[in-house]
Amino acid sequence: MKLLVTGGAGYVGSVCSTILIERGHDVTILDNLSTGNRDAVPAQARFIEGEVATDASTVLGEGGFDAVIHFAARSLVGESVEKPEEYWRDNVGATLALLEAMRTHGVKNLVFSSTAATYGEPDEVPITETHPTAPTNPYGATKLAIDHAIRSYCVAHDFGATSLRYFNVAGAYGQVGENRVIETHLIPIILQVALGHREKISIYGDDWPTPDGTCIRDYIHIVDLAEAHILALESNKPGTHRIFNLGSGDGYSVKEVVDTCRKVTGHEIPAEIAPRRAGDPAQLIASCEKAIKELGWNPERTDLSTIVADAWEFTKNLGDKAHSAKA
Ligand code: UDP
């Protein structure tokens, strides 16, 4: 397929683009490099530096595109609380422009990066797709608004689309992985401590209502996540909007993640208990039954040690390219 991939210079977008190219797809990446890395763009992809809001229409207007995978977004929860206007503009505003560009140019197959943050504080775990959506921050609210917009384009304009609700994505695919200028995610931060680029990991609260007092999350390997995108792309049907949760189905506490990283890396990794982080739910665990049953998804890298080992291999080999080394 000839694909437009927005945000293909970011972590998830670059891994998915790499795998799509290996499977024979023709990939054009549109990314403004606000948070992505130019050197994460696969060599065989065509790269356009630009804005989804203004440039997607021009790109799709060239013709011949079969589908769009839309990764480009602002995705920091804390930042979304402080600057909601930027999240509504860059997430919702840009996606509305993308949907219109797709409609104008007759490209109606879409895979969208949604998030577990659309559910908010869960009533129960594991979280199924029928769980009520009540996001607790603007990031989750903007992604949920986009899910609704996409659904109405499917109904009214015959789009075939899938929203994939990611839980905690981690791991790497060989030399493609997480290397952000501003890192806030648990596993990459712990690995930066192991590398000596940070002194210690701060554990955000040990008084949560969980067995060891630290927050529980569901970590999904980036390669399993990428496979789900390909399955969605290949099975989208006009007039239909599907939503799937993507996780491993297992929850690990922050302390368990730190311990796993210690084992995998062989480094001590000093940790301290810090205050809770605003907006964190105590526990997020996905039910992946729907994706397994209806999408034919078969996640194969669900073991946390495998996820951390792949992330560690990538992080160790970054060398001078590591943003954390320059911090
Ligand atoms: N976390 C932590 N210390 C950090 C970063 C994250 O204790 O330096 C915790 C965070 O409170 C959450 C879990 O690790 O419970 C995963 O956080 P992350 O930011 O990786 O993903 P999120 O769950 O926010 O999407």
UniProtKB/TrEMBL annotation:
Catalytic activity: UDP-alpha-D-glucose = UDP-alpha-D-galactose
GO molecular function, one term: UDP-glucose 4-epimerase activity
Signal peptide: none
Its EC number(s): 5.1.3.2
InterPro entries tied to this protein: Epimerase_deHydtase (IPR001509), NAD(P)-bd_dom_sf (IPR036291), UDP_G4E (IPR005886)
Entries under Pfam families matching the protein: Epimerase
Cofactors, names only: NAD(+)
Domain NAD-dependent epimerase/dehydratase span(s) in chain numbering: 4-247
Annotated metabolic or biological route of this protein: Carbohydrate metabolism; galactose metabolism
Keyword tags: Carbohydrate metabolism, Isomerase, NAD
GO biological process: galactose catabolic process via UDP-galactose, Leloir pathway
Keyword NAD found: yes
Record flagged with keyword DNA damage: no
The protein's assembly and partners: Homodimer.
NCBIfam families: galE (TIGR01179)
Family assignment from sequence similarity: Belongs to the NAD(P)-dependent epimerase/dehydratase family.
Name recorded for this polypeptide: UDP-glucose 4-epimerase
